[in-house]
Amino acid sequence: MTPVELSRTVLHAVRRAVDAGELRVAVPERAVVTVPGPGGCGDYATNIALQLARPSGQPPRRVAEILMPRLADAEGIGEVVVTGPGFLNISLRGGAPAALVGEILRRGVRYGHTDAGSAGGTRLRCPREVRALVVADAAARLLRAQGASVRIVCDGRPEDAWGAVLGVPAEVEEYDGTRGPGGPGRDAVVRPVPAPADPVPLGRDAGRWALLYPAAHDRPRIDGEHLVQREGNPLFQVRYAHARARALVRNAADLGFASEAGDVSGAPGSRELLAVLADHPRVLGAAARDRAPDRLARHLVAVADAVLPYLPAVLPRGEEKPSAAHRARLALAEAAGTVLAGGLSLLGIDAPDHL
Prior knowledge:
alpha/beta, Isoleucyl-tRNA Synthetase, Domain 1, 3 domains, four-stranded antiparallel sheet, 46% helix
């Protein structure tokens, strides 16, 4: 069962409780499913009981206790435990990590994307300023990945170099004074702290990262540090982790084996890596909703930080023969590289296979 399938299972449990008259709430459109936090257990956890407590007029833990048996008897669920104020911790029956890795490899760079588009459309309006346009472009990519229809309008004509070098799309429209979709106030305004210097000399990848990595309210740093290939440079760290993961796939092919999702419980660092990969769809949804590509950028750094210590355990050592464990570990590394490539693509940044 994948996190998306588990989310649907949680909502089905809520719907059954509502139909039975034990909860008087509107069934939400989605249930957030993540890896368990501190004090949690199992494969996944959801805060749905806390979300429904106030509208139901019941304490969160009571809501969790109502939902627990309905989740526990669902197909694929092994055990459900309530922890803290009302978190539901869910253990799946066999193969949860393998299912996650399999889903990532099956969906490729579209892992975490959804086709459930919002009604109408979104129009992003930004000032004629380079950072605002790059942030609007990345936000539009994120929104489209979540199924939304998006247009970008600018309070003036963008400079040619912003498109030629930084990849600002040619279809950016000049604001004509009309209202956005749905009437007054429906334009989503993108107005981050302006760039203190021209990012064009950094080139597309480093220039975009310099503008997107800081939160919108933070002043970006525009300097040559973004071009330095060393550990202290977050962009290099992310792209290096991707290149290392791709190199392992090539090295494994030279040794005569390929990836196959399976049990990675014995691999050092696998749990931490699985946690950040499972969180990827939630991060994409939140970054799109809040038009905050910096959240995705920081998440990619977290993925890179988790995958790099894991990689040395992937390939056979010495005279060791490739086994099912090596194939499963390779699949997890390949999945991490896929998530890094997909995330960088949404930021408009290249993910080279070689560095």
